[in-house]
């Protein structure tokens, strides 16, 4: 009986040892499983963080691209507004030109009579003015009249030449000039050097330097010049031709009459 009990105790002890050993083995397996799961969770966390970092970088790149697109849009908008302003201005200019073209016939109708009046007034002025290069000036007026009858000359070219002739007439009023020509005095035609100081005085001197004349604006006649002025007149002619240095000279000038 005692032996049977002891055997039972031994068997129980062995079973207990196996149970403890089994429990330890199960516990070891649980810890290993937990460690594996933790490693998997950690690896998953790393992958998730990597995805998050990648998505953040992509979002930053998209943000930069968005800002660049917005800036480009603003620049394009400013440029387009500028171009639209230019187009509007060009359209307005074109419309203005078209209106002028539409009125060109009307403009011609007004300009042509004006040009004839200008030529007439130019001729009348030359006839009343000092006879400075009178024939060449009248020849220029005749040329302008011929120009008005030439169909191959544009209105703008006619007007330009008329204006140039008026400008030449204005230059006579400020010029110091000398030129050779013919003077008729007491029925005799004499070769002379003419000299004019603007429109203030017109004088002439024979080529032999022995005689001089002055044009009287009141009588529209040539009068003999006092011999005391001959040397000064010679010097004035040389000055006008740039043959001597400018200097002060004394010459007679007919003073304008005072209005009463």
TrEMBL record:
<keyword id="KW-0732">Signal</keyword>
<dbReference type="Pfam" id="PF11932">
    <property type="entry name" value="DUF3450"/>
</dbReference>
<protein>
    <recommendedName>
        <fullName>DUF3450 domain-containing protein</fullName>
    </recommendedName>
</protein>
<feature type="signal peptide">
    <location>
        <begin position="1"/>
        <end position="28"/>
    </location>
</feature>
<dbReference type="InterPro" id="IPR016866">
    <property type="entry name" value="UCP028069"/>
</dbReference>
């Amino acid at each position: 009986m005692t032996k049977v009990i002891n055997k039972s105790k031994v068997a129980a002890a062995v079973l207990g040892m196996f149970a403890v050993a089994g429990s330890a083995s199960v516990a070891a397996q649980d810890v290993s499983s937990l460690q594996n799961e933790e490693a998997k969770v950690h690896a998953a966390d790393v992958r998730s963080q990597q995805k998050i970092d990648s998505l953040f970088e992509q979002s930053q790149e998209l943000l930069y691209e968005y800002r660049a697109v917005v800036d480009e849009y603003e620049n394009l908008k400013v440029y387009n507004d500028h171009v639209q302003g230019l187009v509007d201005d060009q359209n307005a200019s074109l419309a203005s030109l078209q209106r002028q073209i539409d009125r060109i016939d009307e403009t011609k109708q007004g300009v042509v009579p004006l040009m004839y009046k200008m030529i007439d007034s130019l001729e009348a002025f030359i006839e009343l003015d000092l006879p400075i290069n009178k024939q060449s000036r009248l020849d220029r007026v005749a040329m302008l009249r011929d120009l008005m009858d030439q169909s191959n000359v544009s209105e703008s070219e006619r007007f330009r030449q008329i204006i140039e002739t008026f400008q030449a007439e204005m230059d006579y009023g400020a010029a110091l000039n000398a030129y050779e020509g013919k003077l008729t005095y007491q029925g005799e035609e004499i070769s002379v050097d003419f000299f004019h100081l603007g429109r203030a005085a017109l004088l002439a001197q024979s080529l032999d330097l022995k005689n001089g004349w002055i044009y009287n604006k009141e009588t529209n006649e040539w009068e003999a010049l006092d011999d005391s002025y001959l040397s000064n007149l010679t010097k004035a002619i040389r000055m006008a031709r740039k043959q001597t240095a400018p200097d002060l000279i004394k010459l007679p000038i007919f003073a304008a009459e005072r209005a009463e």
